Amino acid sequence: MKNKKAITFLVVILFSVAFVLGACGDDKTSGTDGDSKVIKFMHLWPEGSSKTHNEIVNEIIANFESENPGVKVELEVLSNEQYKDKIQVLSTSDELPDVGMTWAAGYLEPYVNGKKFAPLDDLLAGDLADSFVAGTAEAYAIDGKTYGLPLELNIATIFYNKQIFDEYGLEEPSTLDELEEVIQTLNDNGIAPIALGNKDRWTGSLWYMYLADRIGGSDVLTNAINRTGTFEDPALVQAAEEIQNLVNMDAFVKGFNGLADEEAKSMFMNEQSAMYLIATWDLPNYTTNEDVPQEFRDSVGYFHFPTVDGKGDMNSFVGGPGVGLFVSENSDVKEEAKEFVSFFVQQWGEKSVTQAGVIPATKLDVASLELPQMYVDVLENLNAASNLTLFADVQMSPDAAQVHLDMIQAIFGNEATPEEFTKAHEDALSAEE
Amino acid sequence: MGLKEMNKVMSNKWVITLYVLPALLLIAILVFIPLILTGYYGLMDWDGVGEMYFIGLENYVTALQDMKFWDSAWHSFLLAIFSTLSLAIYLAISLILASKIRGANLLRKIYLIPMLLSSVAIAQLWIKVFNPTNGMLNHILIALGVENPPAWLADTSIVLFAIFVPILWQYAGFYILIYYAALKNIPESIIEAARIDGASPLQIAYRIKLPLIMGVIKVTIVLAVVGSLKYFDLIYVMTGGGPNGASEVMASYMYKLAFSSKDFGYGSAIGFLLLVITLIVTVIIRKVTASKEEIQY
Q1: Nearest neighbour of B242 by CB, restricted to A1, A12, A257
Q2: pLDDT for B81-100, tens place per residue?
Q3: What is the pLDDT of residue A92?
Q4: Which of B47, B133, B159 comes nearest A253 by C-beta?
Q5: pLDDT tens digit sequence for B186-200
Q6: What is the DSSP string of B114-147?
Q7: How many residue pairs bridge chain A and chain B with CB atoms within 8 Å of each other?
Q8: Can you give the pLDDT at residue B81?
Q9: B237 lies within 8 A of chain A by CB
Q10: Where do the domains of chain B lie, and which CATH numbers do they carry?
Q11: Which residues share a beta bridge with A273?
Q12: pLDDT in tens, A102-143
């Protein structure tokens, strides 16, 4: 009798211990497995939310596997935010996938400092020489070494509703004064001029960055961030003043500081507001996306951010590469992983723009592709671009980026003066020197 | 096995240890060890990815001087105060529901529905309600003749209170359910006796029902305060603590530092302070509400 009980107890203990151990278990499957090698690859385009991206990835993997017998690619797919969280957790326990996705500059820094990502300069000098648009792969470089290869490239422009503009006899503005006249006319007629979802903060940052670029030239912001300049530059103060001028003339939709970008976008797409500053990742919505009514897609145009007081170069853009591929420094199959990354980048370019409507970071022969007109225009703008300034929150370290983003909400909300705004930046940036 | 034998087995110290061990092990691994680790990470300068550097109590000292932290703590305390005050409303509703009124059963279920929704769904729902241009709330206000209704989640002086509404709404069902169960537990004979003695319904509620469920009320106060102090989800989804920190609470500030600013050491220190603050407040509430006489019935 007693024995039987004791056995039950033992079984219970065994199960609970097994359960606990199982939860901590390490199911590392990458590396050499018999004859075939396995590359673990994590990406952030789930079938549900990014169908076309997901399909292209699968196609490329199938091609790679058939060209490289003996190498298998094992996939793990997560959505954006979960992906970011998981990568961070995996890296602390040294279990990064062999190949994964990363963002440029500031995001990359802790991983590079922690020696988690492998330098990929040999690929850039070899198979991929001269294949990236200038300024894109550089965004993934730290201390002269490149740790990521960009897949996407986006520039921000102002999209506008041609129908609304026609109705009130408005023209594409090419100076800030003209833009302000457009805003005035729209306000007089009860149309919200500009959709802005500043809860997400980087959206407002785009406006500030463009004003800084036009007023102070394409280097002023970048120099302030990399500490060859200062954030107390008069141009950066004036850019903040212009932001408040726009806010005070009700240029942006009501309650923009509490709206997410998605909500602002839906206001623009429901023709509740006339203009919307966003990056070219939104192009499918205005060209090929069948879920958006044809009539609306036909009525969308875009113009470059206007000049200010005759200053500024309209061919200077705010933008930058989106996600890029990294190879883990501690990968057991590093060589194969690098080969896969190189193969992926080469196949991605044309497929991504024709199938998914993504502007790739690799150079393209525009004439040979059949694309909607707006794509052709954007690709040509990119060829003519005089400068590409990387998104400010990406350029800065994560710490300074949070200060920047919070101050963006403050300046848009009239809670900080332009001087307080620039001083907070200067303090945060100089604290890191 | 007989009852006697069973009692003998159950009083064996080893058997008790064996039975308790699995749960203890799990709690230790999932709760206590991470808790100690959080305090330990708080002593480090660490970005969450690379090397850790020991810096002693610097993070804790910085936190105590960090105005943003104290602002967020104040917001958390405001939420705690409002949650506690709202308990009175839930109690009143439960008293009404528990006195045999028509449709009490249906109403009880209606009050419970928000509890069944996930926080993110509730957040999405209320984001739509609060939308300044297309939201239900402002449409109603405009229809009522309000000329310039507020932009609820964008106005720094309103946003915190606007966001309290769905938070309180979310937990209403939970507390109503607890109070309702406690009230139903009161023996009918006591109330019957009071009624025969000529007590009015208000007197019965105030003099008999409330004292009898005092224990439950104390527990709900602790639950409401602790839950408020560590509250995170709706704030994170609806405003992300913004605009410019106007709706930041301690937990969202901790998250922002650890995961957005990549300042894992400092974030951990804030997390540990959050724990300490919550513990202190809990002890104070227990002390203040402690009473010697236990009511028996």
Answers
A1: A257
A2: 999 999 999 999 999 888 87
A3: 82
A4: B133
A5: 998 998 999 999 888
A6: HHHS-HHHHHHHHHHHH-TTT-HHHHHHHHTT-S
A7: 128
A8: 96
A9: no
A10: 68-289 (1.10.3720.10)
A11: A192
A12: 988 878 888 998 889 999 998 888 888 888 887 788 889 888
What is the structure's pLDDT at A17?
Answer: 54
pLDDT at A300: 95
Residue A355 banded pLDDT, cuts 50, 70, 90: confident
CATH of domain A155-319+389-430: 3.40.190.10
Nearest to B263 among A5, A259, A399 (CB): A399
Complex prediction ipTM: 0.82
- Selected from 3.40.190.10, 2.10.109.10, 3.40.1190.20, 3.90.400.10, the CATH number assigned to the domain covering A31-152+322-364 reads 3.40.190.10
Min Cα separation B171/chain A (Å): 24
pTM to 2 decimal places = 0.83
Q: Give residue A9's identity as a one-letter amino acid code.
A: F
Specify the higher pLDDT residue, A31 or B193.
B193
| CB pair distance less than 8 Å for B29 and A5 | no
Contact between A116 and B260 using a beta-carbon 8 Å cutoff: no
